[in-house]
Write a structure and sequence with these properties.
Elements lengths: L10 H7 L14 E4 L2 E4 L5 H14 L1
Organism: Methylorubrum populi
Protein name: Intracellular protease
GO molecular function, one term: peptidase activity
Length: 61
Amino acid sequence: MGPTAVVPFLVQDALRRNGGVFSEAGNWAPYVVGDGLLITGQNAASSGPTATRLKEYFVHA
């Protein structure tokens, strides 16, 4: 079963169609992006780096 069997679209495709920017790292690689208060990680491997980025944001806010 592929990902679109459950959800009829991929989030990255919807973002791009609506003018959003999508970026990613390789499978299971940690990857964090942020824009103001929006800070997000790609997967579970990104938990630590995402927490660090969030902490840095509030320390420097």
